[in-house]
Predict the structure.
Amino acid sequence: MARYQHLPIYKLSYELLARVMAVTKEYPRDHKFTLGQKIRDEIISLIVLIYRANSSELKGEGSGCTTAQPVHTVPLIVFVPISL
């Protein structure tokens, strides 16, 4: 099993979290603790889900996912306003 820290999706989501934290640090106080916190919480949830999926003992077994099914790459575009 690959360590989750070596997965490209984990590295990218962690980098996204670091960038969002840097940007939201500059938000005005009222937005920093509402909008900024919600964005950070969602990205942290994504990172936790990546960890759980990689740590699962049942990868592909009984989960409805088989190697015969095609894998789709979905681009993720996130717009974070720098100034509000």
Remarks:
- DSSP finds two helices and no strands in the chain.
- The radius of gyration is 16 Å.
- The mean pLDDT is 76.
- Residues 29-55 form the longest helix (27 residues).
